[in-house]
């Protein structure tokens, strides 16, 4: 079929059940009397600025015989009302789906697409089971794992990502709306916002202690919806609201898109797994999954310290077409009953770093086994525990280890993704354990976790663990990492994921405890001659808020003490890194 001419309607109104008017831009085939499925996305970031054409191009998708609707969420950009994150997305989504299904050119079937918050709006709308909703395509999806990295990780607060999101993605437009009727005040507030932005750009803003002092520099939105969570804990009411988005699978076809370095990577895998289990138990549609070497905002596969090649990018996808093309083919299959459109695309498509190629599977594979590497004397990392010993370092909260790479999203001077670790490993407060060179290829796949024994001179502290690849030339590249806060150790036992029902408890100085850190998932093939390295330290700032080593939070206090940390190993304390292998 030749592409259809496309009509763009820039300011289409939809009235919600409470009377609030939301506005959309609509792309649809020009009037030819036909009826088409609707593909809807809902965004708080501005409907006309928030789409990357290699991810989803509304014009070219509409030309394939779809009505594509991009709607501003309540209280954002062109839509009326007040933006209250996550609260209204279920009902507003359901109202919009019903409206879209009844448009004169619609055939009554609605699919949803979009990434990050756009993806959360899909899950929330689907939770109300609107009859016209037939498919979801969530990418790098929010709405899950609030206590496993979305808001908190191992008990620590996701400082950089949360403040960066509120400032860069939300607060400027909120400011313009808040002072729309007072141009003079608006200009003054915008100047203050720009001053604040300079502090984000160079990272100096994150040096503030206590964090609550930032309140005077922040606008209404940040003070209402972002900064307070820095003073809260895992399991807070907002974490429960956050997780409710996708806590239950839905009986719909789903296409899940994620990245190995995405801040919401666990959501992608959990949501896919929930849909897969439903497909088995209720004989429903089988979900599809794509995971690339991508971050939350970078789908190129190219980073300052490593380039995975053009085939890794969302614009190429190993010759399968860009993600916009794959979206179109998938919606053709599930909304137009054209399964042949996906004959070249496996149900699960994963990028394996190291070997730098895509691999296809019928479903997400289960690791063939698990292997562990044990910390040892003189920085050894061995397949068996060695003699008993300990490695020590001092952690000073006023001189934290800086964030270099990782699965993060920090506006300014801290890019995400895999990164060289030379400057990090040169510090006295970072210890490393390194394996012998591999003699044959080894693929790490799936969950990675560290279980280790540690003591501290403080009543509370943090431990950060990072997995790295060491090339034959000695270059160390970060692949995955995680953190645990000593006072929250009981909530992150087992596999390192949050378990509710445990109150935080301080540690007795000098007492040895076993800690577990989840490093999330990876897919990396080590080549012969390469080595595996584990870093252990006590900070990664500003990705996570600093532990002050006093038992008080960085939100409420500026008082710090230096902690003496000991990592114990050997047969009595078998500290180790464990990972699935394929």
What does this structure look like?
The protein has 582 residues and is an alpha+beta fold. The chain is 20% helix and 29% strand. It has 10 helices and 25 strands. It has helices at residues 58-62, 89-101, 117-126, 159-178, 183-202, 220-225, 237-244, 265-281, 323-335, 422-425, and strands spanning 6-15, 21-29, 36-43, 67-72, 106-115, 133-139, 152-153, 156-157, 255-261, 288-295, 302-303, 306-307, 348-352, 357-361, 369-375, 381-382, 389-395, 431-434, 442-456, 462-470, 476-485, 513-526, 531-537, 563-569, 576-581. The strands form 6 sheets. Strands 15, 16, 17, 19, 22, 24 and 25 form a 7-stranded antiparallel beta sheet that branches. β3 (36-43), α1 (58-62) and β4 (67-72) form a beta-alpha-beta unit. α4 (159-178) runs antiparallel to α5. The longest helix is centred in the first third of the chain and has 20 residues, at 159-178. It is globular. The protein starts with 5 loop residues before the first strand and ends with a strand. The model has no long low-confidence stretch (mean pLDDT 96).
């Amino acid at each position: 079929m030749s592409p259809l001419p496309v009509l763009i309607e820039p300011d289409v109104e939809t009235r919600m059940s409470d009377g609030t008017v939301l506005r959309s831009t609509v792309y649809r085939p020009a009037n030819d009397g036909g009826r088409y499925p609707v593909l809807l996305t809902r965004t708080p970031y501005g409907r006309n600025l928030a789409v990357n054409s290699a991810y989803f191009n509304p014009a070219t998708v509409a030309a394939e015989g779809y009505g594509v609707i991009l709607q501003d969420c309540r209280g954002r950009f062109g839509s009326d009302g007040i933006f209250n994150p996550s609260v209204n997305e279920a009902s507003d989504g359901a109202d919009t789906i019903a409206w879209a299904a009844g448009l004169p050119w619609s055939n009554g079937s609605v699919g949803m697409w979009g990434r990050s918050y756009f993806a959360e709006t899909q899950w929330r709308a689907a939770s109300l089971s609107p009859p016209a909703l037939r498919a979801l395509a969530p990418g790098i999806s929010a709405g899950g794992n609030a206590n496993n990295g979305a808001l908190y990780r191992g008990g620590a607060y996701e400082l950089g990502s949360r403040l960066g999101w509120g400032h860069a993605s939300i607060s400027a437009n909120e400011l313009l709306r808040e002072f729309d009727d007072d141009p003079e005040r608006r200009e003054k507030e915008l100047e203050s916002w720009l001053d604040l932005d300079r502090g984000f750009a160079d990272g100096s803003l994150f040096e503030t202690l206590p964090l609550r002092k930032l309140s005077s520099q922040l606008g209404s939105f940040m003070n209402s919806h972002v900064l307070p969570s820095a003073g809260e804990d895992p399991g807070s009411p907002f974490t429960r609201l956050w997780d409710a988005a996708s806590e239950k699978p839905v009986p719909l076809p789903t296409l899940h898109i994620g990245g190995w370095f995405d801040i919401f990577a666990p959501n992608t895998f959990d949501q896919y797994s929930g849909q897969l289990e439903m497909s088995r138990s209720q004989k429903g549609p089988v979900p599809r999954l794509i995971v690339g070497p991508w971050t939350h905002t970078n789908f190129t596969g190219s980073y300052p310290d490593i380039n995975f090649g053009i085939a890794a990018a969302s614009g190429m996808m190993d010759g399968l077409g860009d993600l916009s093309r794959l979206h179109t083919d998938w919606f053709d299959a599930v909304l137009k009953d054209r399964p042949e459109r996906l004959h070249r695309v496996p149900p699960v498509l994963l990028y394996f770093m190291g070997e730098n190629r895509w691999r296809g599977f019928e479903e997400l594979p289960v690791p063939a086994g698990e292997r562990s590497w044990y910390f040892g004397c003189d920085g050894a990392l061995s397949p068996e525990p060695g003699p008993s010993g300990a490695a020590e370092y001092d952690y000073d909260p006023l001189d934290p280890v800086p964030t270099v790479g990782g699965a993060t999203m920090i506006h300014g001077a801290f890019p995400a993704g895999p990164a060289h670790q030379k400057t990090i490993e040169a510090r006295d407060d970072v210890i490393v354990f390194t394996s012998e060179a591999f003699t044959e290829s080894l693929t790490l796949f799936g969950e990675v976790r560290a279980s280790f024994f540690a003591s501290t001179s403080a009543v509370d502290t943090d431990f950060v663990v990072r997995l790295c690849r060491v090339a034959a030339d000695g270059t160390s590249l970060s692949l995955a990492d995680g953190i645990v806060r000593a006072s929250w150790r009981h909530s992150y036992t087992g596999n390192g994921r949050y378990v509710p029902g445990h109150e935080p408890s301080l540690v007795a100085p000098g007492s040895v405890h076993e800690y577990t850190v989840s490093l999330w998932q990876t897919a990396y093939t080590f080549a012969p001659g390469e080595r595996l390295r584990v870093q252990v330290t006590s900070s990664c700032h500003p990705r996570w808020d600093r532990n002050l080593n006093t038992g008080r939070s960085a939100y409420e206090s500026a008082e710090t003490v230096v902690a003496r940390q000991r990592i114990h190993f050997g047969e009595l304390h078998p500290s180790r890194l464990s990972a699935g292998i394929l």
